[in-house]
């Protein structure tokens, strides 16, 4: 089949007609649930006053008031408040002896904790995520990020093997079952295991749905499609703020955020398979049908003579793959390997610096996003602002890339993200407004920088190893997301340490970007020989 014939088929179908717009719309619904699962735990572990359960003294003093009981059984800290994580050791004395001589020996809470009775059920109160167990909160966030990492490794190759459509449906089912199931877990370790599976399903949905849209939408409209999905993710963060404000019971919140995904089971009837994937697997008749359906929805007609061409030609497979990607190879290029990323000097530099860029970008993004409860202002308003600020950040990124180029935009946005975090370390604790405003600015620059990284990486890597290069960068970003929640644990030694680390990393990354070549207005490199 001649090249012009395949081009005519795709031209006849339409590059961004009603069919593609409908497909992009279908990709938006999962983005809302992804935003929920990414950040919902922040609202399930509120700061709650607590103290050791010292009901042992009731055996000898059943008529003690609550204040008398606490005064006899709990030591006080330097500020005169009751200690939250220690108690006086129980003794076998009578009440008069205890009141006369007092208790001196202390120990950690041995019988659990007591929380305010009016407090709605939260992860913190149900699973005692306080004192020695408070680190489990950050660890569980990291476990969720591990799920994202594993999902990328499992569902990426699986979608290449069994197709985009089945992987999306499997991921939706997993997210629904384990998302709702999380609301009924009896132990925190079971909660972490379920969250890990939900994280894997989130990766399966986001990666595969993006691949499906990319393989149907024409090249000129792809940035628009990706941008719309990013903005929908931001809207999902804003919806989370409202949802968590209205539903304070963590189990009900989990159900409210997870159950709607089951509505997406209508995808079984409406979600198309990727024509490109069908062709690469030799399923030509199915590819014909789905292309004809796309053409009919777009109110276009594929001339019958084009569909009567010898579709089984291997040359046609090669041509269609490139045509859908809107890349017209003049000559056959030698395929690249992962080793080429490190074997050739110019590619090694690009790979290492872009992997570092994605790492620090993800690091500062999640460093700020997962710290929303510690900036001092109302966490629901802060989350709303954090979500809202991403929309102008993503949209504005398009214009800055055109005006200032890729390299300057990437470097400046990373430097600003880092500097904002470093400034936050110097803001006193009694200035929550200043801290929150700076954090919102940091979230803005980190979000814009993330969008820049997607564009810049795709342009820096040669065609033959573009997916491999971007995949490696994405993997480094996921590693950063796993580490970010654990960095917050260092705040127990000094509150400024986490922000100092989150600020230093992107500054280093921004400075390294100066060593990269500019790609604005240049043609994409097809093979590994073309160094910039």
Automatic annotation (TrEMBL):
<feature type="transmembrane region" description="Helical">
    <location>
        <begin position="411"/>
        <end position="427"/>
    </location>
</feature>
<feature type="transmembrane region" description="Helical">
    <location>
        <begin position="380"/>
        <end position="404"/>
    </location>
</feature>
<keyword id="KW-0472">Membrane</keyword>
<dbReference type="GO" id="GO:0022857">
    <property type="term" value="F:transmembrane transporter activity"/>
</dbReference>
<feature type="transmembrane region" description="Helical">
    <location>
        <begin position="468"/>
        <end position="490"/>
    </location>
</feature>
<keyword id="KW-1133">Transmembrane helix</keyword>
<feature type="transmembrane region" description="Helical">
    <location>
        <begin position="142"/>
        <end position="159"/>
    </location>
</feature>
<dbReference type="InterPro" id="IPR020846">
    <property type="entry name" value="MFS_dom"/>
</dbReference>
<dbReference type="InterPro" id="IPR036259">
    <property type="entry name" value="MFS_trans_sf"/>
</dbReference>
<feature type="transmembrane region" description="Helical">
    <location>
        <begin position="192"/>
        <end position="213"/>
    </location>
</feature>
<feature type="transmembrane region" description="Helical">
    <location>
        <begin position="496"/>
        <end position="516"/>
    </location>
</feature>
<feature type="transmembrane region" description="Helical">
    <location>
        <begin position="165"/>
        <end position="185"/>
    </location>
</feature>
<keyword id="KW-0812">Transmembrane</keyword>
<feature type="transmembrane region" description="Helical">
    <location>
        <begin position="433"/>
        <end position="456"/>
    </location>
</feature>
<feature type="transmembrane region" description="Helical">
    <location>
        <begin position="350"/>
        <end position="368"/>
    </location>
</feature>
<protein>
    <submittedName>
        <fullName>Solute carrier family 22 member 13</fullName>
    </submittedName>
</protein>
<dbReference type="Pfam" id="PF00083">
    <property type="entry name" value="Sugar_tr"/>
</dbReference>
<dbReference type="InterPro" id="IPR005828">
    <property type="entry name" value="MFS_sugar_transport-like"/>
</dbReference>
<feature type="transmembrane region" description="Helical">
    <location>
        <begin position="225"/>
        <end position="245"/>
    </location>
</feature>
<feature type="transmembrane region" description="Helical">
    <location>
        <begin position="252"/>
        <end position="270"/>
    </location>
</feature>
<dbReference type="GO" id="GO:0016020">
    <property type="term" value="C:membrane"/>
</dbReference>
<feature type="domain" description="Major facilitator superfamily (MFS) profile">
    <location>
        <begin position="90"/>
        <end position="521"/>
    </location>
</feature>
């Amino acid at each position: 089949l001649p090249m012009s014939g395949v081009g005519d088929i795709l031209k006849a179908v339409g590059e961004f007609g009603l069919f593609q717009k409908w497909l992009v719309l279908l990709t938006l619904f999962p983005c809302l649930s992804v935003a929920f699962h990414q950040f919902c735990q922040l609202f399930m572990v509120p700061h709650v006053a607590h103290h050791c359960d010292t009901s042992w003294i009731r055996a000898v003093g059943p008529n003690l008031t609550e204040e008398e009981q606490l005064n006899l059984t709990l030591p006080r800290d330097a500020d005169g408040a009751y200690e939250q994580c220690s108690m006086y050791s129980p003794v076998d004395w009578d009440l008069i002896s205890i009141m006369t001589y007092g208790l001196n020996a202390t120990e950690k809470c041995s019988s659990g904790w007591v929380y305010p009775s009016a407090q709605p059920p939260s992860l913190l109160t149900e699973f005692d995520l306080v004192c020695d167990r408070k680190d489990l909160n950050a660890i569980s966030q990291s476990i969720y990020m591990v799920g994202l990492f594993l999902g990328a490794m499992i569902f990426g190759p699986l979608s290449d093997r069994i197709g985009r459509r089945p992987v999306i449906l499997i991921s939706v089912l997993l997210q629904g079952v384990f998302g709702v199931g999380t609301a009924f877990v009896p132990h925190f370790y079971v909660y972490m295991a379920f969250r890990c599976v939900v994280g894997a399903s989130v990766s399966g949905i986001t990666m595969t749905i993006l691949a499906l849209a990319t393989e149907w939408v024409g090249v000129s409209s792809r940035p628009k499609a990706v941008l719309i999905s990013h903005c929908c993710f931001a809207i999902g963060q804003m919806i989370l703020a409202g949802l968590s404000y209205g539903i304070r019971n963590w189990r009900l919140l989990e159900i409210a955020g997870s159950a709607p995904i089951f509505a997406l089971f209508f995808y079984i009837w409406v979600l198309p398979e990727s024509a490109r994937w069908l062709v690469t697997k030799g399923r030509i008749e199915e590819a014909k049908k789905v292309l004809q359906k796309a053409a009919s929805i777009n109110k276009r007609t594929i001339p019958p003579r084009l569909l009567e061409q010898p579709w089984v030609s291997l040359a046609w497979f090669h041509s269609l793959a490139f045509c859908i990607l809107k890349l017209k190879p003049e000559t056959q290029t030698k395929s690249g390997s992962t080793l080429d990323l490190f074997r050739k000097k110019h590619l090694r530099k690009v790979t290492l610096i872009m992997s570092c860029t994605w790492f620090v970008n993800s690091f500062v993004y999640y460093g700020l996003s997962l710290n929303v409860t510690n900036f001092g202002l109302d966490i629901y308003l802060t989350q709303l602002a954090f979500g809202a600020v991403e929309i102008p950040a993503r949209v504005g990124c398009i214009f800055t890339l055109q005006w200032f180029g890729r390299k300057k935009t990437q470097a400046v946005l990373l430097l600003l993200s880092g500097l904002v975090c470093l400034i936050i370390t110097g803001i006193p604790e009694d200035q929550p407004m200043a801290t929150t405003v700076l954090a919102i600015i940091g979230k803005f620059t980190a979000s814009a920088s993330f969008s820049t990284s997607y564009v810049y990486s795709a342009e820096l890597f040669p065609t033959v190893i573009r997916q491999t290069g971007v995949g490696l960068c994405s993997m480094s970003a996921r590693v950063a997301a796993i580490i970010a929640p654990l960095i917050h644990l260092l705040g127990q030694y000094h509150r400024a340490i986490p922000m100092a680390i989150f600020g230093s990393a992107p500054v280093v990354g921004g400075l390294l970007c100066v060593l990269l070549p500019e790609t604005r207005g240049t043609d994409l490199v097809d093979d590994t020989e073309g160094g910039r």
